[in-house]
Amino acid sequence: MSEETPVSSSDDTPVPPKKRGVPEGLWLKCPGCGSSVYKKEVEQRLNVCPKCEHHFYVSAIDRIAQVLDEGTFEPMNESLRPVDPLEFSDRRKYADRLVGEQKRTGLTDAAMTGTGMVRARRVAFAVTDSAFIMGSMGSVVGERLTRLIERATDDGLPLIIISASGGGARMHEGILSLMQMAKVSAALARYDESGGLFISVLTNPTMGGVAASFASLGDLVFAEPKALIGFAGPRTIKATIGIELPEGFQTSEFLLEHGYIDRIVTRKHLKSEIARAIDYCGK
């Protein structure tokens, strides 16, 4: 008897067949177009919607795999770990939050740094991850970025930083976090004086102190389509000053039109565009 054939109970009342449900996790709802899309197809397209080209979240580890040549990434400064100098606590102790984020994401902090190859071109490379306390910049994130920039300066390497930080400076560390904006920017100034090439890639979201410091200082600034980029978010601005913002305000497309970024680059073309830019600039 097939699974679809009705069966009878002892009182001859027909029992409806069991329905075969769709296993969970096979489909995603796209925030861009609202369509249900097959998860495996999205992953094969580097986490891009096949219908509207919406760029889904990508982890730092996946970014490394997408941009760098396979097996070439050499991480730096992973031994640097965040601490809780202010013994900060809101709904949860910061020390406990750090442990929870590390277990949940598999990262030690919101930035991964190191060296690697982009189509056989050696680069200094960093990526921030919005999954770790919204990719906010604490003292360890700032120190890792600064050491990477100094390494790029000493070795004459092109510098690539992919930003996905919706949290800006990390409030849990107070001024120790805020000072990272100046520290990283100063390291970039020295790197620029040495003749280095800095390519900054902005993804969704790039906000707060990250957008106000190193993410905006690239010799070339690329951005993914429809990424949210700015200092304070649209809802915060509207609630604070009560002004209706222009349509598309703080998106990649709006900022390209107003000269804030140099080019919008889709995820599948990013690796080639970075390699092309390195060659064009003679680095």
Automatic annotation (TrEMBL):
GO BP annotation list: fatty acid biosynthetic process; malonyl-CoA biosynthetic process
The UniProt keyword set, sorted, is: ATP-binding, Cytoplasm, Fatty acid biosynthesis, Fatty acid metabolism, Ligase, Lipid biosynthesis, Lipid metabolism, Metal-binding, Nucleotide-binding, Transferase, Zinc, Zinc-finger
GO cellular component terms, A-Z: acetyl-CoA carboxylase complex
This chain's source organism reads Rubripirellula tenax
Q: Which HAMAP family match?
A: AcetylCoA_CT_beta
GO molecular function annotation: acetyl-CoA carboxylase activity; ATP binding; carboxyl- or carbamoyltransferase activity; zinc ion binding
Keyword Transmembrane helix in annotation: no
Q: Which family does it belong to?
A: Belongs to the AccD/PCCB family.
What pathway does this protein act in? Lipid metabolism; malonyl-CoA biosynthesis; malonyl-CoA from acetyl-CoA: step 1/1
Pfam families reported in the protein's UniProt record: Carboxyl_trans (PF01039), Zn_ribbon_ACC (PF17848)
Q: What biological function has been recorded for the protein in this entry? A: Component of the acetyl coenzyme A carboxylase (ACC) complex. Biotin carboxylase (BC) catalyzes the carboxylation of biotin on its carrier protein (BCCP) and then the CO(2) group is transferred by the transcarboxylase to acetyl-CoA to form malonyl-CoA.
Compositional bias (Low complexity): 1-13
Zinc finger spans (C4-type)? Answer: 30-52
Main site of residence? cytoplasm
- Subunit composition and interactions: Acetyl-CoA carboxylase is a heterohexamer composed of biotin carboxyl carrier protein (AccB), biotin carboxylase (AccC) and two subunits each of ACCase subunit alpha (AccA) and ACCase subunit beta (AccD).
Q: How is the cofactor bound?
A: Binds 1 zinc ion per subunit.
Q: According to its UniProt record, which reaction does this protein catalyse?
A: N(6)-carboxybiotinyl-L-lysyl-[protein] + acetyl-CoA = N(6)-biotinyl-L-lysyl-[protein] + malonyl-CoA
Q: In the Enzyme Commission scheme, what number(s) does this protein have?
A: 2.1.3.15
In Swiss-Prot or TrEMBL terms, this protein is called: Acetyl-coenzyme A carboxylase carboxyl transferase subunit beta
Write down the required cofactor(s). Zn(2+)
Region span, Disordered? 1-21
Residues binding Zn(2+), per UniProt: 30, 33, 49, 52
Q: What class of enzyme is it?
A: transferase
Occurrences of domain CoA carboxyltransferase N-terminal (ranges): 26-283
Residue ranges annotated as transmembrane are none
Where in or outside the cell it occurs: the entry states: Cytoplasm
